[in-house]
Design a protein that fits this description.
Blueprint lengths: L1 H44 L1 H12 E6 L6 E2 L5 E13 L1 H4 L17 H10 L6 E7 L1 H8 L6 E10 L7 H4 L11 H5 L1 H4 L4 E7 L5 E9 L7 E2 L4 H17 L4 E8 L5 E7 L18 H4 L9 H10 L8 E3 L4 E4 L2 E4 L6 E3 H6 L3 H10 L4 H8 L26 H8 L8 H12 L3 E2 L14 E2 L3 H12 L19 E11 L2 E15 L6 E8 L8 H4 L1 H14 L22
Parallel strand pairs: 2-8
Antiparallel strand pairs: 1-6, 2-3, 3-4, 3-5, 6-7, 9-10, 9-19, 11-14, 12-13, 15-16, 17-18, 18-19
Helix pairs in contact: 9-19, 11-13, 11-14, 11-17, 13-15
Length: 577
């Protein structure tokens, strides 16, 4: 019996070992089957779903910035360019997963921990918020190098204006999203603005782009715009106008220079100006392009157009005599006065001496609607067509009945309002043998045909008559340019205030043409509210014209048409208009 028990125990142990072995094998077989099944499920059954999940966690569709078109002057010099900058943004939901890492920001000057935490918590339900825009790469690196999850970067563009305040009123500026807000930037927004693109990228766990996958939609950059401005002439005009407004303590001023053949605006400047690259403490009053937005009564600069209308009506010639004695004229209840009694003078001398009585008699000799009709043909009371934002149309009364006093006042520039650009256009018509061509802020390759406003003979006679205004006998001796014949007209008008015409506030004007023998340039200078004893147009505006246009003619290599140089003479007491 004992032997039988000893025999059965080893057999039982062998059986137990076999069972355990089979259990282990079965267990590993089941584990293997589970792993294989799971692998099949992941690689075959759920492969598409998982691949999609992986992509949405690592693949991103990001915008591709499109740079804005360049604004250039007529010689290709850049006036507005877009430079790449770095913008920091955050995904609040991503950042909230790692709040313990926000301390890395510390007191960062771009965005510190406290500010970051406040913004993330305020926008925790969003997936995109801006942190800082328009940074230099080295500025952005001070934040990105901290490796805080949820902070990302993208490339944008920021507008830069190389000429600064010299061209600010013409070129304008954009907002932070590069949308035009003023000037040419606004006027040509559709052409200048680009169309952003899109691309797929792969990001790592820290949100850094590690690979560009594909471009879904390429960015379309904006188109360039070439202006009619010549930056050299713009600098000259800006410098002289700035010096004049400071010298005469004026509230402001404008200057416009036109090519009389093509209608191109070669220079257009204003004071006060502003720097479009730094608008932190910007005075909004400085934003106006006064040459196209601000209106004023043109005063005596309107007299050549009264003479033109009378000559076109065959009422007078340059030598026709007019009796201006005793130096004043009673029209209705108003007394129109000259600076002194000029007696019997010819029509040319009416312009030379700027006789209000003389031009009033010419206006009253015409049918009531004739003079307003001619002024309208010269472009007064109408937009110039350059489509500049905020351009004023001016004000030319349209009446079916005109009182005599209204017609007389119109003849010497009261009761009508113009802009500096409108006045320059009108003088360009005289300079261009009576032909009106469209004004342009863009470079003109082929001069337009234009339309004839007055007879060429009338226009050419006016130029010769206006030369006498710049002679020693005229009111604009300071408008003379050494080596060049100049024709033009001064104007001095009382400023209009809320209480009517101010007795001690003025606008000084000069509108001129050069060289008079073969006109190439027409220009207007406006000095607004000069403070002091000098306020006549011949004293405050004519010298600015001389400096600006003299520089323009020399820069453009226009041959001199005068060989006797500057005439010496006593300039004391000159300049009245």
């Amino acid at each position: 019996m004992k032997g039988a028990r000893r025999t059965s125990q080893p057999a039982k142990r062998q059986t137990n070992r076999t069972l355990r072995w089979r259990f282990v094998l079965g267990f590993w077989a089941v584990c293997g089957a589970v792993l294989v099944g799971r692998a099949v499920q992941l690689q075959v059954v759920e492969q598409e779903f998982l691949a999609h999940q992986g992509q949405i966690r690592n693949l991103r569709v990001e915008p591709v910035a499109a740079h804005r078109g360049v604004i250039r002057d007529r010689e290709g010099r850049p006036l507005a360019v877009s430079t790449p900058v770095t913008t920091l943004w955050a995904n609040p939901s991503e950042a909230l997963e790692h709040p313990e890492q926000w301390s890395r920001l510390g007191n960062n000057p771009i965005i510190d921990r406290a500010r970051f935490a406040k913004r993330i918590e305020r926008h925790q339900n969003k997936e995109f918020i801006y942190l800082a825009r328009g940074l230099a790469p080295e500025q952005a690196a001070t934040v990105l190098d901290k490796g805080v999850p949820g902070i990302h970067k993208l490339t944008e563009y920021r507008r830069y204006y190389p000429a600064g305040e010299v061209t600010s009123h013409v070129v304008g500026f954009t907002d932070i999203d590069e949308r035009g807000q003023e000037g040419v930037e606004l006027a040509f927004e559709d052409r200048l603005s680009g169309q952003p693109g899109r691309k797929k990228v792969v990001r790592d766990l820290l949100g850094r782009v590690i690979q560009d996958i594909e471009v879904i939609e390429p960015a379309a950059p904006g188109k360039d715009v070439t202006l009619s401005l010549d930056l050299r002439l713009q600098y000259q005009a800006y410098k002289e106008l700035l010096a004049a407004t400071r010298r005469f303590k004026a509230k402001g001023g404008s200057a416009v220079v036109l090519d009389v053949k093509t209608g191109e605006i070669l220079a257009m400047v204003n004071q006060p100006a502003y720097n479009p690259n730094n608008r932190g403490n910007l005075d909004t009053a400085s934003l106006r392009n006064r040459a196209v937005t601000d209106l004023f009564e043109p005063g005596s600069t309107m007299k050549p157009f009264t003479v033109a209308a009378a000559m076109e009506q065959n009422l007078v010639t340059p030598t026709t005599v007019i009796n201006t004695h005793p130096g004043y004229l009673r029209v209705g209840s108003k007394t129109i006065r000259d600076h002194r009694d000029y007696g019997v003078i010819d029509v040319t001398t009416v312009l030379t001496k700027s006789s209000n009585v003389g031009t009033s008699k010419l206006a009253l000799a015409m049918e009531p609607l004739v003079l307003p009709g001619y002024l309208e043909r010269f472009g007064f009371g109408q937009p110039t067509g350059i489509s500049f934002p905020g351009e004023s149309n001016g004000m030319l009364p349209l009446r079916t009945r005109w009182r005599d006093v209204e017609r007389a006042a119109l003849s010497y520039g009261y009761g009508v309002s113009v802009s500096a650009l409108q006045l320059a256009q009108a003088y360009a018509i005289i300079a261009n043998h009576g032909r009106k061509v469209p004004l342009s802020l863009r470079k003109v390759d082929t001069p337009p045909q234009g339309e004839q406003v007055i007879a060429p003979e009338t226009a050419d006679s006016l130029v010769r008559m206006l030369e006498t205004v710049v002679s020693l006998e005229g009111t604009a001796r300071r408008a003379r340019i050494p080596g060049y014949q100049v024709a033009g007209k001064t104007g001095t008008v009382h400023k209009v205030t809320s209480h009517g015409y101010a007795d001690d506030r003025y606008i000084g004007l000069f509108a001129g043409i050069a060289p008079a023998s073969n006109p190439r340039i027409a220009a207007v200078v406006v000095i607004d509210d000069p403070r002091g004893d000098a306020y006549y147009g011949g004293l405050v505006a004519a010298p600015v014209f001389s400096s600006i246009v003299g520089g323009v003619l020399r820069t453009l290599h226009v041959p001199p048409d005068k060989t006797d140089g500057l005439i010496a003479g006593d300039l004391d007491g000159e300049g009245r208009s």
